[in-house]
Design a protein that fits this description.
Structural class: mainly alpha
Helix content: 25-40%
Distance between the termini: 63 Å
Length: 46
Amino acid sequence: MIDGGDPQHDAAIAHMLDEIKRNGYTPPKRPKFPNRSGMGVTDDDK
C-alpha cells in the first residue's frame, strides 16, 4: 500500500479496462426461468 492505494489492484483494473476496450463487453445472457409447475403440494396431499 502506497499512500492508501493498492498498486496491484490498480493494475488489475487497468488490465480489465484495456481488455474491454479491445474486445468490447457483452453482458451474459440470462438463463430461462425454470419450469416449477410440477413442484409443491400435489392434489393428493391437499
